[in-house]
Amino acid sequence: MTTKNTTVIFAGAGPGDPELITVKAMQALKKADLIIYAGSLVPEAVLSWKSKKTETLSSAGLDLDQIIDKIKEYHNKGKKVVRLHTGDPSLYGAIFEQMQRLDKLKIPYAVIPGVTAAFAASAAMNMEYTLPEITQTLILTRISGRTPVPETEDLETLAAHKASMAIYLSIGHIEKVQHILGSHYGFESLCAVAYKVSHPEETIIRTKIENLTQACQKNNITRHALVIVGSPL
Predict the structure, then answer these.
(1) Tens digits of per-residue pLDDT, 81-139?
(2) Separation of alpha carbons 193 and 131, rounded Å
(3) Interatomic CA distance for residues 50 and 75, integer angstroms
């Protein structure tokens, strides 16, 4: 995580609240010449930490080649770039493919961790994922969709453990999620939908698993949310 004399810094923006960014990431934003941020996933408020001279560029609509070309351009000028990802860069951040390309170009980089939505959600609900003699395991996962998951990590397989679980990027398959969770945790068990946690629009919905799909539809939640399930609820 060393950032001294580093051209590129991959930083976690946190879940949305600009005060939930780390001090280290905030300082990186202040020193950056260019911030490439993850489109609408990173609220404008988080960018308020940058200096007035810092340029910003949304990565929405840019492919990997365009992002790397822009980083290379600034590196060749001796400029500092912050690649700002929502939450924590290591979780569904797609930073590995970017780092591979930077390695080939011999462009130095470092990573600053961030607060992921699962932890902002547990804080908002005053909940602990790991309780003595109840569960000591937290699974962070997603259901298979446009992005496949390995067969051994299928939601059906993971749900069988009945551990605490935070399911990302799966609202588009909520009916399937409901069926799988109900089959293992019980349809009468509680779950929660955490929508835009720590944003001004934050909504936390607690419901029985049997009502999960209905709760999402009733509240027009189609994205930007995770499903939480497990005994601590």
Answers:
(1) 999 999 999 999 999 999 999 999 999 999 999 999 999 999 999 999 999 999 999 99
(2) 20
(3) 19
Whole-angstrom Cα distance, residue 208 to residue 206?
Answer: 7
Beta bridge partners of 135: 131
Of 180, 179, 184, residue with least CA distance to 162 = 184
Q: Given this model, what pLDDT does residue 5 score?
A: 66
Burial string for 91-101 (b: 16+ CB within 10 Å, else e) reads bbbebeebbeb
Helix/strand/coil for 135: strand
Provide the 3-class DSSP secondary structure of residue 102: helix
Q: Could you please report the per-residue DSSP string of 49-89?
A: GS-TT-EEEE-TT--HHHHHHHHHHHHHTT--EEEEESB-T
User: Which residues face 56 on adjacent strands?
Assistant: 35
106 close to 203: Cβ distance less than 8 angstroms: no
Strand segments, DSSP code E, in 92-189 are 109-112, 138-142, 164-168
Band (1; pLDDT cuts 50, 70, 90): low
Please indicate, yes or no, whether the overall pTM of this predicted structure exceeds 0.90: yes
